[in-house]
Amino acid sequence: MARNNPFSPTFGTSPPALAGRDEILEDLDEAYETGPMHPDFTVLFIGVRGAGKTAMLNAAEDIVREQGWLVITEQASPDGLIERLTNRAVTLLAGFAGESRRRVGSVQAAGFGVSFEPRATTEHPPDLRAALTELGDRLGEAGSGVLITIDELHAADLGEVREFGAILQHVTRREGRPVAFAGAALPYIEDDLLEGRAATFLQRCSRYDIGLLDAAATRHALKVPMDRSSAAIEAGALDRAVEASNGYAFMVQLVGFYTWKAAHDPSAGISDAEVADGIDRAERRIGRLVIAPTWNDLSNTDRRFLAAMTADTGGSSLAAIAQRMGVSTSYAHVYRRRLERAGMIATSDRNIVRFAYPTAKAWVTSKAAELSLQQPAP
């Protein structure tokens, strides 16, 4: 009986089937084959929590490793990013040195089997720009390169982001060294780090919005892991799981994971009732894992906006929300944009908004009541 759960509802891990991102992956593969002049040689993945940004970084790393590249991977934090990147680059350079400094002779596929040739000894580069310059030169001699990936880029110190961008601008774009970059961030990076002159290099990076999966990709992400585990699922049950997942990558993994747990014997066929059980558990879990931390990051006015939406059974008009809040429509528009970037709401058309998560309305209703945020419907 196939009991090992094939789904991975854990932040920072790749799903068992990376669905719906084929075009992006093809663009990245082409970029790393082409070199620094390709626009996607430096790229940002932007999306809400659980959209699959980190999975895209992992996929980019897999692509370059298959091409024989090295990888520097970091997670941003309020300080120390430049120092950590420098240490990682120097560590990679140490692989070119023993009793004497050595030069790359060849780099085999998947980043394994690097061979070296003797080279005159020099001191380790003192800073990130010097380290990446030398690393890029040495890898370039072997027809290879290095990919730097930074997750949670929105959490980085602005000064360090500016410094990192200036270094990559020189090393990669101006001097043409094979030092690629891929970063991942929440949507509000557009307002915080990518505005004005603070980080011009990041403004020039290609950007991919990692949004909702369509129904076909969602079905693929649910069905393929089951097929690989010799499981079966009723057609109607799969339809129900697809609908409940709502195209949200993390919810896909939660629904799949808890459906598998609920199934008595996946190899004999997963029933509609077992899917319903899995969906119920997934919806409760996503409230704690995704909606709660997002809610905690919101301002009181953001929360009032969401509370004003709970009076509606379907979508909410911006005019009605503004009236319930006692503000102008233009004022409400500012907070609509903020909440879209936070991933709490989505826009059906220009003036109609809805909750982005199936369980968000119930969550907001309970929290708004606790904090006396709810506005009476007109």
Structure, explained:
With 378 residues, the protein is of the alpha/beta class. The chain has 3 domains: 22-209, Rossmann fold; 216-294; 298-370, Orthogonal Bundle (Arc Repressor Mutant, subunit A). 50% of the residues lie in helices and 13% in strands. The protein has helices at 22-34, 53-66, 81-94, 128-141, 158-174, 189-192, 200-204, 215-228, 235-245, 249-262, 272-296, 300-309, 318-325, 329-342, 360-370, and strands at residues 42-46, 70-75, 102-106, 115-118, 146-151, 179-185, 206-209, 316-317, 345-349, 352-355. The strands form 3 sheets. Strands 2-5-6-1-7 form a 5-stranded parallel sheet, sandwiched between helices. The protein has a 3-stranded antiparallel sheet with strand order 8-10-9. A hairpin with an 8-residue loop joins β3 and β4 (115-118). Mean pLDDT is 86; it is low at 98-122.
Task: Give a quick set of tags describing it.
alpha/beta, 15 helices, 3-stranded antiparallel beta sheet, Arc Repressor Mutant, subunit A, 50% helix, 378 residues, 5-stranded parallel beta sheet, Rossmann fold, 3 domains, single chain
Helix and strand topology:
Blueprint: H1 22-34, E1 42-46, H2 53-66, E2 70-75, H3 81-94, E3 102-106, E4 115-118, H4 128-141, E5 146-151, H5 158-174, E6 179-185, H6 189-192, H7 200-204, E7 206-209, H8 215-228, H9 235-245, H10 249-262, H11 272-296, H12 300-309, E8 316-317, H13 318-325, H14 329-342, E9 345-349, E10 352-355, H15 360-370
Parallel strand pairs: 1-6, 1-7, 2-5, 5-6
Antiparallel strand pairs: 3-4, 8-10, 9-10
Helix pairs in contact: 1-2, 3-4, 4-5, 8-9, 9-10, 9-11, 10-11, 12-13, 12-15, 13-14
